[in-house]
Amino acid sequence: MSISLIEKLSNEIFYEIFEYLDGSEIYQAFSNLNHRFQQLINCSSLLFKFNHDSLILDNTYKQFLLNHEHQIVSFYMQNNDFFSTFSIDSSFYQLQSLYIDEISSSVLISLLGNLSSLPRLVSLTIDAQDSLKDFTEVYRLIFTLPKLKYIKCSGDEDDISISLPIATNEQLSTIEYFIINHHCAFDTLCTLISYTPQLCHLSLDDLSDCDSDNEIIFSVTLPNLTYLSIGSCNVTFENLEALIIESECNLKVLHVSFYYYYNVYFDDDPWEELIINYLPELKKLQLEYRHDIDPELGSSSNFKPPDQFNSLFWNKKKWVLEVEMCGMEYLYTIRSYEKRWYDVDPSNEISNSTRLKITFLPDDDYLMEFELMICDLLAAIKDDSNRYFRLLCFHIPTDDNVMIEKLKQMIIGEECLHGFTIDKQMQDHTQKVNMLVIIFSIIHKDLILYNKITESLQWIMDAMARVKMNDRNKEPPSLTSTSVGDSNVPTSTQPTENSN
Fold this sequence. Notes:
By secondary structure, this protein is α/β, with parallel strands linked by helices. It has helices at 11-18, 23-30, 35-42, 59-67, 105-115, 136-142, 186-193, 237-247, 268-278, 312-317, 370-382, 401-414, 457-463; strands at 48-50, 72-77, 97-101, 123-127, 150-154, 177-185, 201-208, 227-230, 233-234, 253-259, 284-292, 319-326, 329-336, 354-360, 389-397, 419-428, 433-441, 479-485. It has two domains: 8-96, no CATH class; 97-485.
C-alpha cells in the first residue's frame, strides 16, 4: 500500500496553498518545521499577508516579522506595545495595504510619518476610535503618501477637528477611494476633497452643516467621481446641490440618507431638475428619508402615504418609492427598482407603485392597541388621494391565532383590499418564536386587477430583512397560509423547485 506524504507535493502547490493562508498561520504551521519549508518561507517571491489580529507577540514571532519584512504585502496592526520594538520603515518596500487599529495618537502620527518611504503602499485603513479628536496632522500626512489610492479613516468622536488649508497644486494626492467614517462638517469636506482631484469614490458616514460662517470654497473639480454615499446627511439641499454642480462630477451611483427636518429632500421636483441637468449618467439612486413617529399622536394616526416620486420621469428611470415602519420611525426609500414576487408584467405601472412594509411594531404602553393601528392604516390607504399606495406587508413576532382572526375580520370590514394573505413562519427553531407575515394586495376602484399573484417562500425570506435564521443549513420551516378576498385572487401556493 502506497502512502502519500504532504512533503511530496511540489513547491508550486505549497505556494498556492500559502495564497489562502494568513502570514501568522504560515508562521505557526511551517516555521522551523524542516529545512525545505524554511527555504520556501525565505523565498523572496513569497509574499505574506498579515491581515488578522494575532495574539502571538513573543520575541520569536517579532523576529519572524523582522526577518521577512521585505516579503510583507499587507499588514494589520493593533497593539501599542508592539511598536516598542517594531516599526514600519522603507524595509517594507513590498507593503501595499496597511490596517491600523486603535493605537495611540502619538504612535499613529509617528507611524504615518514613516509611510511616505513606502513605494507600493496603495491602501490605508485607520480606525482611531476614541483615541484621537484632532485629525489635522493625520490627514496632512495621508495626503503626502505618494502612491495611495484608497483611504478609510474612522473615529468615534462627534467633535472631531480638522484644520487644513485649501490644497495647492504641489499638495495634490493620488487618492481615488475616500471613505470618511467619522463626523465631518461640510466646509471641512470641501477642504479635504481639494487634495483629491482624482477621486472616483466618496463615502461619508456623517455629514453636517458648516462649522463656521466663512464662505465655502469649491476649489477642485472631480470629473472622475462616479460614486457618492452619505450615511447621515445633515446639510441643506442647497449645499449638497452645490457640491454636485461645482465639482462637475459624473455620478453613476448616489446614496443619501437624511431626516424629516430637511423636508426639501423629499420634494421630487428639485431632485428631478438636478438629475436632468447635472447627473445624466446616474444609474443607481437611493434616497432614504427618516421620520420619527410622535408617541403623543400614535404610531399611525398621522400616517399619510406620500404622493411624491410617481411621475413619468421616475417611472422611466425605474426608481420606486417604498415605505417601512420600524418601531418609532418611518423610513421612506427611493431606490432602483428590483423585481418582486408580484411583478407579473414589469412594464405595468404596478411595478413602480408605493409599498409599505412594517418590520417591527412597538409594544410600549403609551402606543395605541394593535387593532386600532391596523384600522388607521387601512383607513389611510382607502383614501382616494393615496391611489399610488398598493402593497402592504407586515412581519411581526406573534403566536396568537386569536389575533390573526381579528386581523382578518378588520381587513374584511374595511372593504378597501381586493385580497390579502396571512402567513405564519417559524423564526427560531430553539425558542419556537413565530413570525407573522401579512401581505396585502391593495386594489383601488380605479385600478385593474393583476393578472396573477405568485407567492413564494423565497420572497418572504427576503422581505423579513431583519430576521436571521439560526441555522441556515436546516430545512426551511413549515409555512401555513390563509387567503381572503375576491374569488379572482389566487390563494397562496408553496414554491416549486424552480421558484425564485
